[in-house]
Amino acid sequence: MPSRQKSQYNSRKENIRIRHVRLRKKISGTPERPRLCVHFSGKHIYAQVVDDTKSVTLTAVNTTEAEFREGAGANVATAIKVGTAVAERVKRLKIDKVVFDRGGFLYHGKVKALADAARAGGLEF
Q: How far apart are CA 58 and CA 89, in angstroms?
């Protein structure tokens, strides 16, 4: 069975990769409106703001940083902290609007919490 074909036999990781490839065909960051992409591993949360025209990461936040190490985990509470921090760092760059790239993850739980916290921090999607 081809790996790109979605079926009941694909693993969870494979389904996330398929969704991410499909999303990235439609989403791209520009200097005026960079892409806010998120990734969740079993232990950590990563968020970065990328200008795809120059292939440059403008800023990044993740739970491996010193300020997030205390009680950090890949959960909703930590996602809210990361979303607030990424909004604060992007605002320092004088950027108000971003394109949200959920990275193939479903818009629910941690992804939604991070996005809502970033919106509350002043970012516009």
A: 9
Average pLDDT, the chain: 90
Per-residue confidence band for 1, with pLDDT thresholds at 50, 70 and 90 = very low
Cα angle for residues 115, 28, 124 (degrees, 5° grid): 35
Residue 12 located in a structural domain: no
Tokens of 81: 């902290």
Q: Indicate the burial class of 125 (C-beta count within 10 angstroms; 0-12, 13-18, 19 or more).
A: exposed
Type of residue found at 87: A
109-124 confidence digits (pLDDT tens): 999 999 999 999 999 9
- Sorted by sequence, the CB contacts under 8 Å of residue 68 that are 6+ apart come out as 62, 78, 81, 82, 85
| Cβ within 8 Å of residue 7, ≥6 positions away | 1
Number of domains in the chain: 1
pTM higher than 0.90, yes or no?
Answer: no
Q: Which range marks the domain in which residue 38 is found? A: 28-120
